[in-house]
Design brief:
Layout (H helix, E strand, L loop, with lengths): L5 E7 L8 E7 L7 E10 L2 H7 L17 E2 L3 E9 L11 E5 L12 E5 L3 E3 L6 H5 L2 H14 L8 E4 L4 H13 L4 E5 L4 H6 L4 E4 L5 H4 L3 E6 L13 E9 L7 H7 L2 E3 L9 H12 L7 E6 L3 H10 L5 E5 L3
Parallel strand pairs: 9-10, 9-12, 10-11, 12-13, 13-14, 15-16
Antiparallel strand pairs: 1-2, 1-4, 3-5, 3-7, 3-16, 5-6, 6-8
Length: about 325
């Protein structure tokens, strides 16, 4: 594989709207020590992708990543090992793998080939196709690492998931069910009710009709996957001593939370690439204890259309780009 080798990729050469995503020829990377080259079959979309596409203008300057064009977006890949960067990678050409690549470093996924650190790789569950597997890594690991690795969730009183139909939300809902939540309350728009009850929700709240805190009280744990300026309105849904955890920036009014006796865990939910954690999650997917939902699938060349779909909101599960059609 010489230096002249190329591949198809979606790159941006300037920040902006979906139209800046250009399907074009790009240099094909080569793996170094401790890396493998993956022939990407599918890549999952995440909010990080559209934040990065716009130059992280939604982020405070002090936490804004310094990613500069030309840039290939995408962290969630599923594919087949095409080459290894040495004899001791533990992987062989032809192995089916998936990964959250390089996070929180520079992404590489919207392309036919991606170099992936060995530490990020896990074997793709045979029960999942590549499109399904690509929908898992960032959203699944965000929920898994926080609830199981950091929070050590092992059951308790009523648990609420806000934004339950989205990528992180639908995984969090299922992991809380597996963890033994006494009652599982899903919050989303009305069109998602049947879907979320199918994932194990005991109660459903349509936030477009009723504020959460008007119909929920005494919750032991509230997982907020939405955030935003109105996030503080969720506080009264929790009991004194209850916990609110969030994975996006929001105005949670710490002084009000203290008055209500609510423990805030904002800004402590940072996913990290980990092949070992992804392998644990893969085991849950392999035997059907949790499942991944797909909102929509687009060819790689239509990445801009996929970003436009994301901007419409009300996503059910994950949006994925199919690279090998």
């Amino acid at each position: 594989m010489g230096a002249e080798a190329t591949m198809k990729a979606v790159r941006l050469h300037a920040f902006g709207g979906p139209e800046v995503l250009v399907y074009e020829e790009a240099p094909r990377p080569e793996p170094g020590p401790g890396e493998v080259l993956v022939r990407v079959h599918a890549v999952g979309l995440n909010p990080l992708d559209w934040y990065a596409r716009r130059g992280f203008v939604d982020f405070p300057p002090e936490v804004r990543p310094d990613w500069r064009p030309p840039l290939i977006l995408g962290t969630d890949v599923s594919g087949v090992v095409a080459a290894v960067g040495g004899p001791d990678t533990g992987w062989s050409v032809g192995d089916e793998v998936f990964a959250l690549v390089n996070f929180p470093s520079r992404p590489v996924g919207y392309a036919e080939y991606a170099v992936v650190p060995v530490a990020d790789l896990a074997r793709k569950p045979a029960a999942l196709g590549h499109v399904e597997a690509a929908a898992v890594p960032m959203a699944g690991l965000t929920a898994f690492q926080f609830l199981h690795k950091r929070l050590g969730y092992d059951g308790g009183g009523p648990a609420v998931v806000v934004g339950a139909a989205g990528g992180v939300g639908h995984f969090a809902l299922q992991l809380l069910r597996l963890g033994g939540a006494e009652e599982l309350i899903a919050v989303a728009s009305g069109r998602h009710e049947e879907f979320l009850r199918g994932l194990g929700a005991d109660r459903f709240v349509d936030y477009t009709r009723t504020p959460v805190a008007e119909v929920v009280e005494g919750a032991d744990l509230l997982v907020d996957t939405v955030g935003g300026p109105e996030a503080h309105r969720l506080l009264p849904a929790l009991r004194r001593g209850g916990r609110l955890v969030s994975c996006f920036l929001g105005d949670y009014r710490p002084e009000r939370a203290a008055e209500l006796g609510v423990e805030l865990q904002q800004g402590r939910w940072q996913v990290r690439s980990s092949g070992a954690d992804l392998a644990e999650l893969a085991a849950l997917l392999a035997d059907g204890r949790i499942r991944v939902a797909l909102d929509s699938v687009y060819p790689l060349r239509e990445a801009a259309a996929a970003h436009r779909r994301a901007a419409q909101g009300h996503i059910q599960g994950k949006i994925v780009l199919s690279v090998v059609e």
